[in-house]
Amino acid sequence: MGDLLSFDFNVFLASAGTSPFWAMVYLLAHGGWILFVIAFLWMFEHGWLEWRQTLHMRAKEWICLAIEIPKNSEKDPGQALRGIENIFAHLAGAHSSLSWTEKWIRGTIQDQISLEIVSTEGHIQFVVFTTRKFRDLIEASIYAQYPEAQIAEIEDYAKRIPSHYPDREWDLWGTEMIPTTSDLYPIKTYPLFEHQMSGELKDPLSALLEGMALLGPGEHAWFQLILIPIEQKAYRTKGEALVKKLKGEKEVAKVTLAEKILFAPFNLFIALANGLIGTAPGPAKKDENMFAARIFNLTPGERKVLEGVENKISKIAYLCKIRYIYAGKKAVFKKPRAVNSFIGFMKQMNTNDMLSLKPELKKIAPSGAFWFFKEQRNNLHKNRLIKHFRERAPWDGMPPYYLNTEELATYWHFPHTFQVRTPQLKKRESKTVEPPYNLPTI
Description:
Elements: H1 2-5, H2 9-18, H3 20-58, E1 62-68, H4 77-91, H5 100-104, E2 113-120, E3 123-131, H6 135-145, E4 150-154, E5 170-179, H7 205-213, E6 219-229, H8 232-247, H9 257-277, H10 286-296, H11 300-313, E7 317-329, H12 335-347, E8 357-359, H13 374-391, E9 401-404, H14 405-411
Antiparallel strand pairs: 1-3, 1-4, 2-3, 2-6, 5-7, 5-8, 6-7, 7-9
């Protein structure tokens, strides 16, 4: 066994100079086989996990819930959005920690929740797509804030258009939104759209809904916001590290258990020596003085960014993905009509000093900037987009990013119908009440 693990680099170089084949034989015979074993085990681990997770995903039952907009969203816009934020906080209960058996044997993965806004030929609906086991949680979250809302299970609307392109009758454009900076920075959220004196809220969602309402026969526009419930500790730790960096605080490297054991005798000796000699603590280090000066010398803009990050990590967050698709029959397909309103809606929440989301135009969206095999590459992008949209795939495409409850409520909420003038917006007109408890029965 010792000979198999002994490796003489000089012999290997001499073999490589005369015969590369015998150099490889020497490498394999003297320990190189370990690399192949490691590579095999790595591929087996990932292949096994993907296989189990695929079987688990296929066994799930997915449902599509349509929500009729409650009339009481007109009463107090700011309070209504805070109610939506409470819904997102409640939906965080969908997160579950996985045991070893659940992950590696059953292939269990965290289920996602997809919040969607759908325009079918100008008719707008709010939709939630998720697994059936989450239906009670979603309904309880919505009814707690909007008792008059109506929730009904419908067929998946995403199956109304072709799934393969090029198509003789249909065309499609879509994209995913990606962050331009660290996703630990916040976007511009709904409190900043409220007038400081009057408290009037200029709903940013109105721009998107107005654009969606302009669609005509044969046109579809779909907005998708996918939520992946997460364990909050890792998110909080990353956010606190960014806060320290913004403050100018140096990050202290964590000491491993092996380092603690290795340096324990030296640390004990130093502690005993200080105790015998009676060494007093020295003056504050230069770094500490510089850190204090840095805190007091922050500019107003730097303080604003620091407060924004601290506010973001103080609230519950999800890993998220935003997709948008516009599809239509070629005779009526007009990309600017549906796409410009969506891009304008997203830009309302962007800031130059913190977080901005932009459309991904190289790997995801069909583009006119391709030089080679333009049609083939664009059709490939279209096929992937509609496939990922239908599957509500959180990990396919670009990586997901952090958004907290306040940011999510800004992107997806029931609109205030007095600001959204479209007559095709689905909303409740009548109130449903419980019958009197003493109503006689026949």
